[in-house]
Design goal:
The chain is mostly helical. It has helices spanning 41-53, 59-70, 82-88, 93-103, 107-113, 120-137, and strands at residues 17-21, 77-81.
């Protein structure tokens, strides 16, 4: 994602980097649903089971299931120094965004530092942006 105008044109060593789930895998402690409600880890577990077995889900269970489905997607992943990752693990987005602003020089994280809200719609939007970058780097063959 670096451009010809980027100050650092050298590829960084990956030895000190971790893959981070921006919306954490264990999100219920610090991340509310879109309606502002908090959920317990038990409710997350219950919604996981219901999404596999129930034909009808409550609105809250649907929101939890949608949130859970967004966590392991490419739009929700980034790379960050392992020390930063450990210090903000499972924290709310404002804390993560500030840590990225203070510590990350990766172009991959630049748009995250300018984003005020992190939710399923933002995750989808970032996935599409990353996909466009990937297509430029690795164009499809004509065969």
């Amino acid at each position: 994602m670096r451009s010809a105008k980027s100050e650092e044109r050298v590829v960084l060593s990956l030895d000190d980097l971790d893959i981070d789930h921006i919306l954490p895998q264990t999100w219920s402690t610090h991340w509310s649903l879109a309606d502002g409600s908090m959920v317990s880890a038990q409710e997350v577990g219950d919604a996981r089971l219901l999404s596999l077995t129930a034909t009808e889900l409550t609105d809250k269970a649907k929101a939890i299931a949608q949130r859970e489905a967004s966590v392991p997607t490419i739009g929700n992943l980034t790379m960050v120094h392992y020390g930063v990752n450990r210090s903000v693990q499972n924290k709310e987005f404002a804390v993560k965004r500030q840590a990225l602003f203070e510590h990350s020089n990766l172009q991959l994280n630049r748009t995250l530092t300018a984003t005020s809200l992190w939710n399923e719609a933002e995750i989808q939007k970032r996935a599409e942006m990353l996909f466009e970058h990937a297509l430029r780097l690795w164009p499809r063959s004509s065969a």
